[in-house]
C-alpha cells in the first residue's frame, strides 16, 4: 500500500534515504575508502564505454558518462532508440552499459543485443533481478531500489546515480576517497531535503506558469533534463531542461515573466559562476528564478526563491538537488489534480520499440 501517502510517487520520493542506503550496503569499504562491487569482480574494461538508455534512465546514463570522462575514460551516452551498431562504431574493446530500471525496455534491449552481436561486452544496470537485461548481458549491477509503482521514475533514478557513481570508481580506479565520502552522506542529505523542502510553496506560487525551464551544467545538466521530464509527465505542462550555456543560443527567446527558471547551482567554483551568469540573463528578462543551491555561491542574490540543499561533493550534489525538483513536480501535479501515479498515455515499462 501507500503507507499513508497520497500517491505511490510521493511514497517513493520519501523512501529515497532508505533505498539509497540499500543500494550502498556492503559496497562501500569505509576503512579503505573503496567501492567494492562483488558482482562485477570479473569485469575488465579495456576500451571505451557506451551507455544506452531511454527517458529518465538516459539522464542517469549522461551522468554516468560524465563520471567516467572525468576519470579519463572515453565514454558516451546514447538514446537507445537512436543507437544502431551499424552506424555507431562498437566492437570487442567496448563495454556497453544498458541503464534500465525495468530491464525490459525494448529500445534498450535492442541496443544491448546489437552491441553484443558486434562483440562488445555488455552490462545491465537494473532494478529488476532476472529481468531480460540482467539475463542477457554479460554482467549485471543491481540498483536495489525496491519496487517502484509510480510510473514516474524517482527513487530508481537516485539509485541509478549512486550505482553509476560506484561503477565509475570501480572502472576508473584511482583515489575514490572523496567520492566515497560523498556517496556515504547522500542518504542523510536527501533526508534533510525531504524534511526541510519548501517545494510545496514554490509549486503553489508557480502552478499557473506557462512553462517551466531548468538549467544546469556538468553533473547538474542531466538533473535539469530530469527535472523537466518529471514536470512534463505528471503535470502535462510544458517544461524544458537546458545546458545552462545553451540558453542564449535560442531558448532565451521563450523566457518571460510567466516562465519560472529553476537553476541548479551547487558549490562555488567555475561551474557555479558560469550558471549564475545565465541566471542573470533570465532575471534581466523578468523571469522568476528558483535557485536550487547549497548556499556556497551568491546565486540567492539573483533568485526569487531558494530551494536549499545541504552542501555535498559535486558528484553527490546531483542526487541531492534532484530531490527538490521531484518534489516541485509532485506538488504542481497534485495542485492541478493530475493522475500522478498513472499519467495519461504512459506505461511503466515500454516493451515496444
Ligand atoms: C520517466 C520514466 C521513463 C523511463 C524509461 C526507461 O519517469 O520512467 O522515462 O525512465 O521508459 O525505462 P527503464 O529504465 O525501465 O528502461
TrEMBL record:
<dbReference type="GO" id="GO:0004360">
    <property type="term" value="F:glutamine-fructose-6-phosphate transaminase (isomerizing) activity"/>
</dbReference>
<feature type="active site" description="For Fru-6P isomerization activity">
    <location>
        <position position="348"/>
    </location>
</feature>
<dbReference type="GO" id="GO:0005975">
    <property type="term" value="P:carbohydrate metabolic process"/>
</dbReference>
<keyword id="KW-0963">Cytoplasm</keyword>
<keyword id="KW-0677">Repeat</keyword>
<comment type="subunit">
    <text>Homodimer.</text>
</comment>
<feature type="domain" description="SIS">
    <location>
        <begin position="202"/>
        <end position="343"/>
    </location>
</feature>
<dbReference type="GO" id="GO:0005737">
    <property type="term" value="C:cytoplasm"/>
</dbReference>
<keyword id="KW-0032">Aminotransferase</keyword>
<feature type="domain" description="SIS">
    <location>
        <begin position="36"/>
        <end position="179"/>
    </location>
</feature>
<keyword id="KW-0808">Transferase</keyword>
<comment type="function">
    <text>Catalyzes the first step in hexosamine metabolism, converting fructose-6P into glucosamine-6P using glutamine as a nitrogen source.</text>
</comment>
<protein>
    <recommendedName>
        <fullName>Glutamine--fructose-6-phosphate aminotransferase [isomerizing]</fullName>
        <ecNumber>2.6.1.16</ecNumber>
    </recommendedName>
</protein>
<keyword id="KW-0315">Glutamine amidotransferase</keyword>
